[in-house]
UniProtKB/TrEMBL annotation:
Catalytic activity: cytidine(1402) in 16S rRNA + S-adenosyl-L-methionine = N(4)-methylcytidine(1402) in 16S rRNA + S-adenosyl-L-homocysteine + H(+)
NCBIfam families found in the cross-reference section: 16S rRNA (cytosine(1402)-N(4))-methyltransferase RsmH
Keywords, in A-Z order: Cytoplasm, Methyltransferase, rRNA processing, S-adenosyl-L-methionine, Transferase
Biological function: Specifically methylates the N4 position of cytidine in position 1402 (C1402) of 16S rRNA.
Taxonomic source organism: Nocardioides cavernae
Segment forming the signal sequence: none
Main location: cytoplasm
Cell compartments where the protein resides: Cytoplasm
Family membership noted in the UniProt record: Belongs to the methyltransferase superfamily. RsmH family.
Protein name: Ribosomal RNA small subunit methyltransferase H
Superkingdom, natural source: Bacteria
EC number: 2.1.1.199
Length: 325
């Protein structure tokens, strides 16, 4: 098995955004996408008053990060869960709120660098792509059972693939005689389906299809759509939510959720803000922050990152869903 490597994206900036919420003794930070633990390790080392809860759906990533962070003792707790289960995780640990929540929505090096997981189009491996390999259908099962219409939608919506319908038709035609089982099977079909001029632009011709299948197999957008509001509800006053997104659909979802949470909902010509009408959160970042040229040169995975953060300035409404407090 290949040994995974990992370079956390925008590490110093992420820690700087989290730090004001994690200065008090006993403050609690939740890393919703623990992966190999790079961001959490930096929090544990640089913010000595913080306790870290690390969530990941991948048992192998949890084992590796737990070994990496074992030296921090009971300041670190690993939890096997999907990150939209955040309220249940926090409640199960006896907490009524936390002080910071972080999401790194990029694909973990744990999945990309280990060929046996089937995420990488550059390696021939079983076409799996499940972040939790103990549950759910694989990418091969999806390719071998979905209708052409459903495959077209997945490739067009999640991969922004211009040749989605052509690829979907070819997938259905091929599987009638030879069902898909490995990544090489799919890459071969993509080379045959995408016209040569298009293959020479926009990166590897399999990039968009593999991205779309991974998002569909793991139901990534639906999970994120539930998780971001849950994270906003679970932080106390002064708490922060920090998100790194790498896909336009994911960033758009985060941007809208943060805009809704920070919107001042009064008529624009009103000369004052009525008591109780103030938004409970404020934007910490101005728009989306990006990696600079130096970091992108050192870590190409940082090229598409969009970083956003919000802070709670007022208590949540008693009627709001989430963890009671």
């Amino acid at each position: 098995m290949t040994t995974p490597r990992h370079a956390p994206v925008l590490l110093d900036r992420v820690v700087a955004l989290l730090a004001p919420a994690l200065e008090a003794p006993g403050s609690v930070y939740v890393d919703c996408t623990l992966g190999l633990g790079g961001h959490s390790e930096a929090v544990l080392e640089r913010l000595p008053n913080a306790r870290v809860i690390g969530i990941d759906r991948d048992p192998a990533a949890l084992q590796m990060s737990s070994e990496r962070l074992a030296a921090h003792g009971d300041r670190f707790t690993a939890v096997h869960a999907v990150y939209d289960e955040l309220p249940e995780v926090v409640g199960s640990l006896g907490l009524d709120h936390v002080d910071a929540v972080f999401f790194d929505l990029g694909v973990s090096s744990m999945q990309l660098d280990v060929r046996e997981r089937g995420f990488a189009y550059s390696e021939d491996a079983p076409l799996d792509m499940r972040m939790d390999p103990t549950t759910g259908r694989t990418a091969a099962e999806l390719l071998n059972t979905a209708t052409a219409q459903e495959l077209t939608r997945i490739l067009r919506e999640y991969g922004e693939e211009k040749f989605a319908s052509r690829i979907a038709r070819e997938v259905v035609r091929r599987r009638e005689t030879t069902p898909f089982s490995t990544s090489a099977d799919l890459v071969e079909l993509l080379y045959a389906s995408i016209p040569a001029p298009a293959r020479r632009t926009g990166g590897h011709p399999a990039k968009r299809t593999f991205q779309a299948l991974r998002m569909a197999v793991n139901d990534e957008l639906a999970v994120l759509r539930r998780a971001i509001p849950a994270s906003i509800e679970v932080i106390g006053v002064g708490g922060r939510v920090v998100v790194e997104a790498y896909h336009s659909l994911e960033d758009r979802l985060v941007k809208r959720a943060f805009a809704d949470a920070t919107r001042l909902d009064v008529p624009p010509d009103l000369p004052f803000v009525p008591e109780g009408a103030e938004p409970a959160l404020r934007l910490v970042t101005r728009g989306a922050e990006q990696a600079d040229e130096h970091e992108i040169a050192e870590n190409p995975r940082a090229a598409s990152v969009r970083l956003r953060a919000v802070e709670r300035v007022l208590p949540s409404s008693p009627s709001s869903p989430g963890v009671a407090r």
